[in-house]
Amino acid sequence: MSKISDNMKQLSYGLYAVLTMDGDRPTGCIMNTVFQISNDPVTVAIGINKNNYTADVIRSSGCFSVSILSEQSPRKVITDLGFRSGRDCNKLEELNYSMVDGLPVLNEQISGAFTCQVESVADAGTHYLILAKVSEAVDASELRPMTYRYYHENVKNAPVGDGNSVKYVCDICGYVHEGDINDEPDDYRCPMCGVLKSYFKKA
Ligand SMILES: Cc1cc2nc3c(=O)[nH]c(=O)nc-3n(C[C@H](O)[C@H](O)[C@H](O)COP(=O)(O)O)c2cc1C
Question: 2-147 domain in CATH 3.30.565.10?
């Protein structure tokens, strides 16, 4: 099994904000599994965890948008959309977006964006594989799309702060804690993703 997972880690991906509408409230999550499957009609597939609230909303609304993150997209896009659930909060509250084809699309330094209508949903164990037809697209930008590897090397583990004050960074989501984490109580949890303080590393 470890040979299989070692090889799975060598697959390359991009990074995307997959957004949808929960009634009149925008929501969505960060995904690396977005792929073009065919040309005519232009069809994409996404692999979404069954536990994600976004999966429930896409299955009931039948549509979603894909914003292609660029190397310039702010880290906040990933922490706000990728480390908390739309079940508990309005994830788009502090992000810039426009409505395209009735769906939210990010205005946060993206490489491009398009909207999709769900065609079919297949059961893939922990995930759904959702096939969808692309219906509309915005003008693509010149910004280089962010790859999964770029995210790990330059965003998640990026150096933070001015070097003058003590900072600790959550190893799971990248949240930056100002001051010494050891001064926090033992049951302190990351305000972004909820892990214990043992997951924080000095920046
Ligand atoms: C870099 C990154 C890539 C991710 N890729 C996927 C993915 O491909 N599929 C998925 O279901 N979740 C993925 N996630 C996790 C969801 O974004 C995350 O669980 C989110 O909090 C779900 O929110 P929701 O409950 O509002 O849908 C990814 C998260 C990150 C940070």
Answer: no
